[in-house]
Every structure is written in C-alpha cells, then in structure tokens.
Amino acid sequence: MNKDTVKGTIDDAAGRAKRQVGEWTGDTNAQVDGAAQQIKGKVEKAVGNVKDAAKDINKNAQTNVERDNEARERQRHEEEHKHHQTIGS
User: Fold this and answer.
1) Among 10, 31, 36, 47, which residue carries the largest CB count within 10 Å?
2) Taking CA 33 as the corner, what is the angle to CA 1 and CA 38, rounded to the nearest 5 degrees?
3) Residue 25 CB contacts under 8 Å (≥ 6 apart), including other chains
4) At what angle do helices 28-87 and 3-25 cross, to 10 degrees?
5) What percent of the chain has a predicted confidence (pLDDT) above 70?
6) What's this model's pTM, rounded to 2 decimal places?
C-alpha cells in the first residue's frame, strides 16, 4: 500500500463522514463537499492501486529476467562441462 492509497482511504472516509453530517443537519454544502472529498479519495485510491500493480508487474518482470539469466548461465556451464569431457581435459 502506498501513500496515494492511504491518503485516498482517509479522504474517502472523511468525505463520507462530512456528507453524512450534512445529511443529518440539512447542510447541502457539507453534503456536496463531502461527496466531492469522497470522489477525490476514491480516485487517489485507484491511482495508488495502479501504482502498486505497476510496481508488482515490474518486480515480476525483473524476477523473470533474473531467472532466465540464471538458467542460461547453468546451461552454458553444462555445455562447457560436456565440451571438456568430450575433448578429455
């Protein structure tokens, strides 16, 4: 969870509370402000989720590259070993 997700969660909850208080008191400005803050929070959470997903994809891609490099290196060592056995050294 990154800072966008955390901030979004806080803004969403605060906006929900502000909107609810506005409904209880009949204050339409508070209701509108609260709804706007909720929307802002939901957008921030979505941005945070996208960033987290991108980070996970990047991390997985790096892991796959490292695994492929290790496999190629093992194969190269095996081929080198077979070559040395073949030529008798």
Assistant:
1) 31
2) 25
3) none
4) 160
5) 99
6) 0.64
Pairwise CA distance, residues 29 & 23, whole Å: 10
Look at residue 50 and tell me whether its pLDDT is greater than 80: yes
Return the ∠ at Cα 20 (arms to 50 and 18), rounded to 5°: 65
How far apart are alpha carbons 4 and 52 in whole angstroms?
10
Query: Per-residue pLDDT for 5 more than 80?
Result: yes
Q: Residue 89 has what pLDDT?
A: 60
Q: Which residues are CB-neighbours of 17 under 8 A, at least 6 positions away?
A: 34
Give the pair of three-digit tokens for residue 30. 């508070």
User: Is the predicted pLDDT of residue 88 greater than 80, yes or no?
Assistant: no
For 16-43, letters b (16+ CB in 10 Å) and e give: eebbeebeeeeeeebbeebeebbebbee
